[in-house]
Amino acid sequence: MVKELTAAAVTRGLKTRSIGRKVLYFNSLPSTMDIARQEALKGAIEGTVIVAGEQTGGRGRLKRSWLAPKGNVALSIILYPKIESLPYLIMIASLAVVKSIESFTGVKAQIKWPNDILIGGKKVGGILIENELRGNKVTYSIVGIGINVDLRVADYAEIATTATSLKNESDKDDLQIEIIRALLTEFERLYLKLPDGKAIYEGWRERLVTLGKKVRAESGSQDIEGEVEAVDEDGALVIREEDGKLTRVVAGDVTLREK
Ligand code: ATP
Ligand code: BTN
Question: Tens of pLDDT along 133-175?
Fold first, then answer.
């Protein structure tokens, strides 16, 4: 039996204090990011979550498009963090996605810097964070999370060889509601640790598949090639170039390709 995704199905029995206390569900939306932004500007309470049954105009970083037809997870969480906490949001979201996937499928997931969640080297989820700042104060921060749950990746030529879904990787399907609830619970557990992000950073670093890899980081016309030697607590990669020079790369507009 297919379980119906609704706001009540997500909040029923959810034991969080703020993340997911309020859930706004939309059957179909261009992107949860836009509604989340509008709600934040209207003063939505922290932890409000926008969930879409399907997205028709979902987006990733660098204006790339993100496919999220029915049967998958597409949501945005509204937060009002301190500016010092911003670097940890991607780490919290990544760890929460990994944990929610592992607890319901038993399949191991990894984090690829800066914002991809992989199973067996294929992309199963992605995170998009959009912040608005005024001076050094955060007006709002929107954490967008997409996870391929029942996606039949073979039906989408553009991602058929690079992506996967929980249904593809396990014998389980219809996990949407369970995954969302576990994700929100774990997100809150980690978010409540802030402003002390050390343990979050260490947990995230342990899961990064990017460490030790030979990569090319492209940002506009700038290309940096070398081996990833470390990742700093602010989320920046430290790349050892061929000539021995160490260069720090912050996520921003960077595309990372394995060499
Ligand atoms: P980077 O290393 O820069 O993150 P990326 O190719 O993963 O590279 P992103 O901006 O993170 O780029 O993600 C957007 C890309 O993800 C799109 O260009 C598309 O190829 C791919 N994509 C879109 N929808 C999905 C999906 N549902 N599952 C997996 N991949 C998708
Ligand atoms: C990426 O891989 O670049 C990030 C993908 C982020 C997708 C999620 S789905 C929910 C939210 N709404 C969007 O339009 N994008 C994010």
Answer: 999 999 999 999 999 999 999 999 999 999 999 999 998 878 9
Which runs of consecutive H residues, i.e. helices, occur in the chain?
A: 7-11, 32-41, 86-105, 166-169, 176-191, 198-207
User: Is residue 126 lining ligand 1, measured as CB closer than 6 Å?
Assistant: yes
Question: Would the CB of 55 count as within 6 Å of ligand 2?
Answer: yes
Ligand 2 atom 2: residue of nearest CA: 126
The percent of residues in the chain predicted with pLDDT above 70, rounded, is 99
Strand partners, 77: 49, 143
Note the pLDDT of residue 254.
87
Chain centroid, CA 148 distance in Å: 12
CATH number of the 214-256 domain: 2.30.30.100
pLDDT digits (tens, 9 = 90+) for 77-111: 999 999 999 999 999 999 999 999 999 999 999 99
Q: Given this chain, do its domains 7-207 and 214-256 carry the same CATH topology? A: no
Pocket lining: 201 vs ligand 1, CB cutoff 6 Å: no
Query: 159: Cβ below 6 Å to ligand 1?
Result: yes
The secondary structure element, H or E, covering residue 137 is: strand 137-147
Is the model's pTM score more than 0.90?
yes
Residue 250, Cα to own-chain centre: how many angstroms?
Answer: 17
- Interatomic CA distance for residues 39 and 33, integer angstroms: 10
Residue extents of the structural domains in the chain: 7-207, 214-256
What is the spatial distance between Cα 80 and Cα 131, in angstroms, rounded to a whole number?
9
Decide if 38 contacts 47 (C-beta within 8 A): no
**Residue ID of nearest Cα to ligand 1 atom 27:** 67
Q: Which CATH class is domain 7-207?
A: alpha beta
